[in-house]
Each structure stands twice: as C-alpha cells, then as structure tokens.
From TrEMBL:
Protein name: Polysaccharide lyase-like protein
UniProt key word Signal: yes
Keyword Signal annotated: yes
One Pfam short name: Polysacc_lyase
InterPro entries in UniProt: ConA-like_dom_sf, Polysacc_lyase
UniProt signal peptide: 1-29
Sorted UniProt keywords: Signal
Amino acid sequence: MIHVMHFVPKLVIAALYAASLLICGPSSAENYKVPASVERQVSGILGEAIEATQRLPRPSSMQAMQQGAIRFVRFTIADGDIGGAPTDNDPTHSRIFDKPHSERAEIRTEDALRSNSVYEVTFQVRFVEGFYGDSETFFQIHTGQKPPLMFFFRQFGRTHLLANFLQGCARTCGHNDQPDYVRVKEFYPASGMFGRWHQFRFLIDTSNQGEMSIYVNGQPFVTNQPVTFPSQHRPYLRFGVYRSGSEEGNRTSVVDYRNLSIQRVRQAGQ
C-alpha cells in the first residue's frame, strides 16, 4: 500500500485545487508555491538539498509517499499542467520551438555543481505511467539557460531512453537559442521499464569541454561522451517531468525518485 505523506492538510489541498480550476482552469502555472517546509521534507527523503525555484501546477504535482518501508518523491503531470518557468507559457518561445506551451513539475539541487570537477551522481527512478510523448524529460543537468544534458524516457514509437548532450555554447546560451545536441538512445522493453526501480549512475566532468558516462542498472548506456558546460554558468540537477504541451492533449505521466547521492570525486584533469 502506498501512503501519501501530506505536505498540507487534505482540506487545504482540496480547496487550493478547486480554486485553481475555478479561476484558471487545469493549466494554471501560478497556483502553487512550494513551501520551505516541503522542500526540507523532500530533501530529507532524497538525501540531498533541493529547492523548487518555480511554482508547480498544483500541490499534487509533487508528493512525498511511502510504500512499506520505502519513502520516495512522486511527480505527476497531467494535460495542460503549464510550468512556472517564464518560458513555459511565453508565445515567442513557443513559436520558436513549435509548441503551444510547456508542461512542467520539477525541482533542482540547491547547491550548484562546481565547474572543472568530476562528480558521481546516483539515484533510483521508477516510471509509473505515461511518457507517451516524444520529448518528456525525467532528469536534466541544467545551467539556467541551456541544459548540458536532457534525459528522456519515451514510448514514442518504441520504448527507449534518449539522452541529448549539449555541443557548442562554450560561454553562454539564451533561452531561445537552438544549439546542437548529440543524441544517444537505447531501446528497452516496456514490460521491463514500468513499475520497478532502476538505478542510474552518472560520471560527470563539468569542464567547459567535459564528458559524461551513464550507467543504467549497472550497464553502460554511454561512456566518455563529450558535452559542453557553458563557462558563464554553474550546472545543477533537475528532477521531475518537463515536456511540450500538445493541441491534441497529453496523457498523464507519473515518475518516482529516491536515494539521490552527489559526490565530488576530484578536480577535472587530475
């Protein structure tokens, strides 16, 4: 049995949710600012300090849950859940990237990673349902402008993991820039991906011209892949769902996380 560890009383959640539907409809991007107490609770479950720098579509977009002795954090995105980032409902940004809006429920690590360093990052993730779109991320390494890594789980045609690695933007990139990315993907049977915990391990060199290795359940997904970390920005990690909105509507996507660990291994180049 799964137990929800409520951030606020049930009546408050119900009232907030009902008010959001009456005032803004299901796509409100400004209806829930995550309290500091919730950030602390989620940090305690994941094992690293996190923060919600953007508002979530609704309180149920991120929930602390427990199944037996296992505690985890669940993210849920439904159709029309426009994110709280400035670009998520910006007409210019949407026109450039050919989408009506962006749907998002994400948190980020509180302390940015250091540049010119090698890190080992591990966490466990469980895909519960959804991820039918062709561009739904469940993990990003970001800089506030363009992400050095976007990691997608997709049931678009065939079930697979897709990683996009930034190339170029050596100093900085704007929100509406479209730099090059190298795409790496591996196919997996859907029956083996949903409803079970998967272990992800990243070895990350955050040098300007860095590299990255990714392991899924102990098996190499990609090794020593070159990736750019823009020199004017410090990278950090993002967890949760980020995807393009759809005129035809998106299905609900649900994903769980636990056991996050971030370890600085050494200075790059040593």
